[in-house]
């Protein structure tokens, strides 16, 4: 099987249930989810499996779920069978509640950085926020699985938590925004 098909050479792409322009907001939304998935893969490669086995396992599951989210967003059929569900969001919240016990309380805004793994996780966080914005725009124009929007919102929070956890487990302090006062009390 050849990797290239030439079917997209005219600026159209296939989705579940038809073909649409490659610059459609739907393609932008699931394309940004795909980008997020790639950044999470990069983050996993920066995590020491001896220290972060639990996080690597979760992030790998998240990669599978992001593939499912992309499939949900690429589905334009009537009565689609969606894959992203509220239970996935609940699982992210439970993980955040667990990891919060390992990190110092947050007082100020945190700048991206610290360890290399934390920096990549912060990149993943901002890509998740961008994906969420694209999905919000798409949801205003077309019918989608709204659980994807909620999932991306919670996932960005989770990635922030994991970035802080990456620093904490490596004994590296978060970089605080020092030009402002304490904002979290």
TrEMBL record:
This protein's name: Corrinoid adenosyltransferase
Keywords annotated in UniProt: ATP-binding, Cobalamin biosynthesis, Nucleotide-binding, Transferase
Gene3D superfamilies for the chain: Cobalamin adenosyltransferase-like
Residues making up the signal peptide according to the UniProt record: none
Record carries keyword Transport: no
Family: Belongs to the Cob(I)alamin adenosyltransferase family.
Pathway: Cofactor biosynthesis; adenosylcobalamin biosynthesis; adenosylcobalamin from cob(II)yrinate a,c-diamide: step 2/7
EC class: transferase
E.C. no: 2.5.1.17
MF (Gene Ontology): corrinoid adenosyltransferase activity
Pfam families documented for this protein: Cob_adeno_trans
Keyword GTP-binding annotated: no
Catalytic activity: 2 cob(II)alamin + reduced [electron-transfer flavoprotein] + 2 ATP = 2 adenosylcob(III)alamin + 2 triphosphate + oxidized [electron-transfer flavoprotein] + 3 H(+); 2 cob(II)yrinate a,c diamide + reduced [electron-transfer flavoprotein] + 2 ATP = 2 adenosylcob(III)yrinate a,c-diamide + 2 triphosphate + oxidized [electron-transfer flavoprotein] + 3 H(+)
Record-annotated Cobalamin adenosyltransferase-like domain positions: 3-165
InterPro entries hit by this protein: CblAdoTrfase-like, CblAdoTrfase-like_sf, PduO-typ
């Amino acid at each position: 099987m050849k990797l290239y098909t030439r079917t997209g050479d005219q600026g159209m792409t296939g989705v579940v249930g038809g073909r649409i322009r490659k610059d459609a907001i739907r393609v932008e939304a699931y394309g940004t989810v795909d980008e997020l998935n790639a950044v999470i893969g990069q983050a996993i490669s920066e995590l020491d499996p001896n220290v972060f086995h639990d996080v690597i396992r979760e992030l790998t599951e998240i990669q599978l779920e992001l593939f499912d989210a992309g499939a949900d967003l690429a589905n334009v059929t009537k009565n689609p069978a969606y894959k992203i569900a509220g239970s996935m969001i609940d699982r992210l919240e439970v993980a955040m509640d667990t990891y919060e016990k390992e990190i110092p309380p947050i007082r100020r805004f945190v700048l991206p950085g610290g360890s290399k793994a934390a920096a990549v996780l912060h990149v993943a966080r901002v890509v998740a926020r961008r994906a969420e914005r694209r999905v919000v725009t798409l949801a205003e124009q077309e019918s989608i699985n709204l659980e994807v929007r909620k999932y991306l919102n919670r996932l960005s929070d989770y990635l922030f938590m994991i970035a802080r956890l990456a620093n904490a487990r490596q004994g590296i302090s978060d970089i605080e925004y020092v030009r402002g006062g304490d904002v979290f009390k």
